Amino acid sequence: MQLRYAFRLYPNAVQQSALARAFGCARVVFNDAVRAREDARKAAQPFPTAGDLSRKLITEAKLSKERSWLGEVSAVVLQQSLRDAETAYRNFFASLKGSRKGPRVGPPRFKSRKDARQSVRFTANARWTITDNGRLNLPKIGAVKVKWSRTLPTTPTSVTVIKDAAGRYFASFVIDTDPAADAARMPATNRTIGIDLGLTHFAVLSDGTKIDSPRFLRRAEKKLKKTHKELSRKQKGSRNRAKARLKVARAHAEVADARREFHHQLSTKLISENQGIAVEDLSVAGLARTRLAKSVHDAGWSQFVAMLEYKAERYGRTLVKIGRFEPTSQTCHACGVKDGPKPLSVREWTCAACGTVHDRDHNAALNVKQAAGLAASACGAPVRPGAIPAQREEPGSHGFPTGNRAA
């Protein structure tokens, strides 16, 4: 199983300039590849192969006057940019054929220097190293200071250097882990749990535990409003506007980092304490089109469930997702009678058949557990274990930085 371990980088001024050149050269090669394929499509000609693009856009381009500056960065960075373009086209065609799962993917678009996220990737043949004093030595960039928060378990296969919208730099290492060894680290348990995700409480468990929703976005709205107002008053193209944009990005990054840290801590706690976990497969995209859209996005259910998925596979646990149309809030968990839909304002109700008084969310969590088959398990072994695809990584992963932390 592959995971990403991310750590904060602190490049000096010279290294930042070198990274900016690497970002720009990788972006130019990617755009040239997209342009070459689009020109071939419009001319009704076969797409150029990856080898042809590599020779034309990198090898020959370095010898030309217009693209001679491509030689100032590592060739591996340029090759990986071409590979990214190839992958983008492959995903696009697979989406057209219907062989790719998930929402439809559009054709690759040109990258801009104003994109919020810039990145370059160094594979093993780039000969990057970690020095004895703990710095990350990158070709044609130098030894960059790293804030190590934990030890890498094995030798990484590649490293991606990322600059986010808030101007922070991160090194994201790809690590091959041993699922058997990871599963052995988790304490043995026979417990199973059902989870009902909501807005009043972020999660209500089938054992009656209620986890309050931190509402990070709602709590930060006043600060965000102030930073956005300051940005709107700055003249476009000015240095003051660039500074104000960074303040906005950093304010949003604080919210996202706090939410992600909360999700990681909660998901790790649930995975470590339970052998089987049941959760509802919510239609977040549909709920985000309702009047509750801001609260739904603030909760971040999709990110939380994705963390449960990859951690369950990594540590040998079982995660079962039940259908979103299962009437968990309408059914009495005691007698199984369906009592009909109820408005969100109804938080408690009494079953007309058996007279049991239900807390709406706790009852739903119990029904989620029963619908997943975990309630009728033997010695905690789930009746309906399902295949769980590997998802993201530990806190501070690529695309999910948590400040100076990576764990």
Description:
There is one protein chain. The protein is an alpha+beta fold and 407 residues long. It has helices at residues 13-42, 50-63, 75-97, 179-185, 216-232, 239-273, 284-287, 293-299, 301-314, 360-371; strands spanning 2-10, 118-123, 129-130, 136-138, 142-147, 158-163, 169-176, 192-197, 201-205, 210-212, 276-280, 318-322, 348-350, 357-359. The strands form three sheets. It has a seven-stranded antiparallel sheet. The protein has a five-stranded mixed sheet with strand order 10-9-8-11-12, with helices on both faces. A two-stranded antiparallel ribbon has the order 13-14. The longest helix is centred in the middle third of the chain and has 35 residues, at 239-273.
In short:
The chain is 40% helix and 17% strand.
Number of helices: 10
Residue-averaged pLDDT = 88
- What kind of sheet is the major sheet? 7 strands, antiparallel
Spatial arrangement of strands, main beta sheet: 2-6-7-1-5-4-3
Q: Name the beta content range.
A: 15-25%
Order of helices and strands: EHHHEEEEEEHEEEHHEHHHEEEH
Strands, count: 14
Outline: elongated
